[in-house]
Amino acid sequence: DIQMTQSPSSLSASVGDRVTITCRASQSLGIYLNWYQQKQGTAPKLLIYAASTLQTGVPSRFSGSGSGTDFTLTISSLQREDFATYFCQQSYGTPRTFGQGTKVEIK
Amino acid sequence: QVQLVQSGAEVKKPGASVKVSCKLSGHTLTQLAMHWVRQTPGEGLEWMGGFDPEEGETIYAQKFQGRVAMSEDTSAETAYMDLSGLRSEDTAVYYCATAPLCGGSTCRVLDDWGQGTLVTVSS
Scanning every residue of chain B, which has its alpha carbon at the shortest distance from the alpha carbon of A95? Predict the structure, then answer.
């Protein structure tokens, strides 16, 4: 199985901060990498697919980059509604494994 | 607008089976690929399997092979996930999620999700 490692596992930030989350794969994925946001008690929501394509309706403060084994999710200016847990998922191989998540908390 | 509504919470004994349903509205099952993902505090999010348009069949994660079966009733626009041989480690929230019916990096995404079904396995 392809292992996905996210860092950090949690972070504290203030509204307006720039936040960066990284995801590293155990083998090359090309651009087969997606990002999801999950708020407490709700299902994950797709934010970015194919490493850098913003899902329809997702604010432009979210962006994704990377290819191969190293990927980044950036929130350019953190808003209150962005406090949540973020997961990366590889869709290159089966099983389509997820990272362990990064919890973004209010400082 | 796609909406996925899952069946309610279940409590099962070890060794039993559970069948979770997922009703689709706003689209049709024959034009989407259905997947199932579960979430536990210990293992996080785990992809269990789903329809792969490039393979033309449902693919299961090896971890669940032999214990899981995913099916659809297209007349009822409802998908099902059967998990047998339940053990305490299967206690989780189970999600259905849809993907576009196409191939490539832009299609291997889970873009709509059900609300989740809590399955508790306890003696």
Answer: B61
Taking 90 as the threshold, does the pLDDT of residue A75 lie above it?
Answer: yes
B2 touches B27 (CB < 8 A): yes
Q: Answer whether A3 touches B (CB < 8 Å).
A: no
| Secondary structure of A13-33 in HEC code, one letter for each residue | ECCCCCEEEEEEECCCCCCCE
What's the per-residue H, E or C state across B51-119?
A: EECCCCEEEECHHHCCCEEEEEEHHHCEEEEEECCCCHHHCEEEEEEEEECCCCCCCCCCCEECCCEEE
Task: Tell me the per-residue pLDDT of B75-98, one tens digit each, with 9 for 90 and over.
Answer: 999 999 999 999 999 999 999 999
Give the nearest partner residue to B109 out of A46, A94, A95, using CB atoms.
A46
- A vs B, Cβ pairs < 8 A, gives 63
Contact (Cβ atoms closer than 8 angstroms) between residue A30 and residue A92: yes
Report helix, strand or coil for A70: strand
**Residue B53: is the preceding peptide bond cis (ω within 30°)?**
no
Q: What is the pLDDT of residue A12?
A: 97
